[in-house]
Amino acid sequence: MSHQSDMTAPRAIGLPDARTLSYAEYGGPAGAPILFFHGFPASHKEAALWHEAAVRHSARLIAPDRPGIGLSSYHSGRRFLHWPSDVAHLTRQLRIDACHILATAGGSPYALACLHEFRRDSSAGEEPSTNLTVRIKGTAIVSGIYPLSLPGPGPSGIQLSTRIALWIVGHIWFLIVPLLEWFMGTPARQNPQLFMSRMMREAESRPIVDKMCLADKAYGSGFIESTKHVFARDARGAAYEAGLMGRPWGFELDDIDAGGVSIWQGGFDAACPVAMARRAHGHLKGSILKVFEYEGHLSLPARRQDEILKAMIYG
């Protein structure tokens, strides 16, 4: 891999409510700014997997850790629509008035929340709830997740057992904190080998294309490192974020101006099924859907980075 400069070292900004937002940057420091919203469970270190491609395409990836993830402060009672305010403060601190958004998997609700807030209809006299503005030039959602209640024709592709589990976690997320801390949090901080073995055991149920990505030494170690950093402090942030996925999101996809939004989905994606992406595409007016039938949840963002960044930056 090419040399990663000091720009990749974690930094932080203070927020008005005294919380800290941690972030790091990857790619070219003078490149086109792209906000990188990591997946779940993942952290800003997921963007390190995109560093090489970002350098090739002169992209500057700015990757914040969401509240309670990594070294970002926990935010009690937060919702998806709280995130745009944090993002706006970050972009103002970095003196960025226009950028792209690249969201993977569990980062998609946060990307959509930003589009909902930053692209409100100014002709109707509405102002973004953040009282801060940043212009979103384009958004790529890769292996994204969408609301479980999203209406549409045909099956969503999400198993009933998964729907039930997400609903339960959404309402009693606090009960899984001790379990998540025992299973992943403590090993992440104290026993890296145990943490890795548990992560690899979970990967056994993934499609072969995703297993091949994890078998790659560079990608596999980067993936593990990103997940491990989630629990840098404790498991509370990860448990709360899991709960958000199973609750109402607080906004409707139909209300979003999705011009400039591209949806990238793999046909072998069992975690975020392509059927759900098709439904979301139908509700996101102006979006473009790109389906890669032989890619999985991990292989798509792992193997299509150049294609995704090229489409974002050069149109």
Automatic annotation (TrEMBL):
Gene3D superfamilies from the UniProt entry = alpha/beta hydrolase (3.40.50.1820)
Q: Which GO terms describe its molecular function?
A: hydrolase activity
The residues that cross the membrane are 164-184
Which superkingdom, per the lineage?
A: Eukaryota
Keywords (alphabetical) are:
Hydrolase, Membrane, Transmembrane, Transmembrane helix
User: Per the record's keyword annotation, is Hydrolase included, yes or no?
Assistant: yes
- Please identify the protein, giving its name as recorded: Alpha/Beta hydrolase protein
